[in-house]
From TrEMBL:
Belongs to the trehalose phosphatase family. Its cofactor is a divalent metal cation. Residues 1-20 form the signal peptide. Pathway: Glycan biosynthesis; trehalose biosynthesis. It catalyses: alpha,alpha-trehalose 6-phosphate + H2O = alpha,alpha-trehalose + phosphate. The keyword Aminoacyl-tRNA synthetase does not apply. The keyword Signal applies. It comes from the Eukaryota. This is Trehalose 6-phosphate phosphatase. It is an enzyme of class 3 (hydrolase). Its EC number is 3.1.3.12. Removes the phosphate from trehalose 6-phosphate to produce free trehalose. Pfam families: Trehalose_PPase. It comes from Bactrocera dorsalis (Oriental fruit fly).
Length: 323
């Protein structure tokens, strides 16, 4: 991959000083230019001129459903880019992310697809880069950690979103304050060096909301952006960079600016942070949202009502490309 080719330009832009006195002003000044250049490097939101919209989408509930509802989408002569989330997608959600693992069958399928010459495999996770690499354990594929802020290709080429020094200086104090004030009653802080996740799944219901709101205020006071996850909140740098932008950058770098005309793309994820990728890929791929809620509004093309249906998704791909 050639991900580093755009890095010097972005690093040059990111050196522009931000002289805000308040944290919120610092955030607004420091990232408007940097994020704009990354977005330009990645490309436009979709190959379609129509603005993506969330809606209730068709359900796929079996291996046969993939074949019935997507006839002819996959072709073994056409390269496939397979972009997958980890937690809640390849692996079932656990009470603690340290206890989240793929089952043996999914692991075997993924390893088999990873070595196919027509399949480009990329894992895009909210976990830190090294964490998700250790969980998957497949060498020679592309990984994106921290929602795409860290990207490493199979040959070891790195691409890290350049964050302004002013914001970086707020990260450690934010982690310390969260640990001191709200890491209690079963809640804990997952420090991912670039972003963090505040887990409150085990906090008693009668104090959960109050503790969560305090965590949000702490995060925002340090200039970081809050987003909701499964019984957790994400604290991310306030930049216009996410799984959607990262997906476009990875595809464009690997297959060229006209990637949508040359390959098939599949993306699967289960969380709100995955909706960014589904939105940016709408109209140029097939995307799948893992969600039990029959009324959920999503940018995805299809809903998978159970996490274990991701295994059927991989079997469908294997049947086309390897059987």
């Amino acid at each position: 991959m050639r991900l580093l080719r755009i890095l010097p330009l972005v690093l040059l832009v990111s050196r522009s000083p931000a002289r805000a006195t308040a944290t919120s002003s610092l955030v607004k000044r420091s990232y408007i230019t940097t994020s704009g250049n990354f977005a330009a490097a990645a490309g436009s939101c979709s190959s379609s001129n129509k603005m993506p919209e969330k809606r209730v989408v068709p359900v796929i509930s079996s291996l046969e459903d993939f074949e019935r509802k997507l006839p002819g989408y996959l072709n073994k002569k056409t390269p496939l880019a397979l972009l997958l989330d980890y937690d809640g997608t390849l692996a079932a959600i656990a009470d603690n992310p340290k206890n989240t693992y793929m089952n043996v069958d999914v692991e075997k399928l993924l390893n088999r697809l990873a070595v196919h010459p027509q399949i480009f495999l990329c894992i895009i996770s909210g976990r830190g880069l090294r964490d998700v690499q250790s969980r998957i354990g497949i060498k020679g594929i592309t990984y994106a950690g921290n929602h795409g802020l860290e990207i490493e290709s199979g040959d070891g080429t790195r691409h890290d979103y350049p964050l302004a020094a002013e914001l970086k200086n707020h990260y450690a104090p934010m982690v310390k304050e969260l640990i001191n004030k709200v890491q209690k009653n079963g809640a804990w802080v997952e420090d991912k060096t670039v972003s963090l996740t505040y887990h409150y799944r085990d906090v008693p219901a009668d104090i959960s909301e109050e503790q969560k709101q305090l965590a949000i205020r702490i995060i925002e006071s340090h200039g970081y952006r809050v987003s909701q996850a499964h019984d957790a909140i994400e604290a991310k740098p306030p930049v216009n960079w996410h799984k959607g932008e990262a997906s476009l950058l990875i595809l464009k770098d690997r297959f060229g600016a006209d990637w949508a005309d040359k390959i098939k793309v599949i993306f699967a994820g289960d969380d709100n942070t995955d909706e960014d990728a589904m939105r940016f890929l709408q109209g140029s791929s097939k995307t799948f949202r893992v969600a039990a809620d029959p009324e959920i509004q999503t940018y995805a093309d299809f809903r998978l009502p159970q996490q274990d249906l991701v295994e059927d998704l991989l079997k469908w791909i294997r049947k086309t490309y390897t059987d």
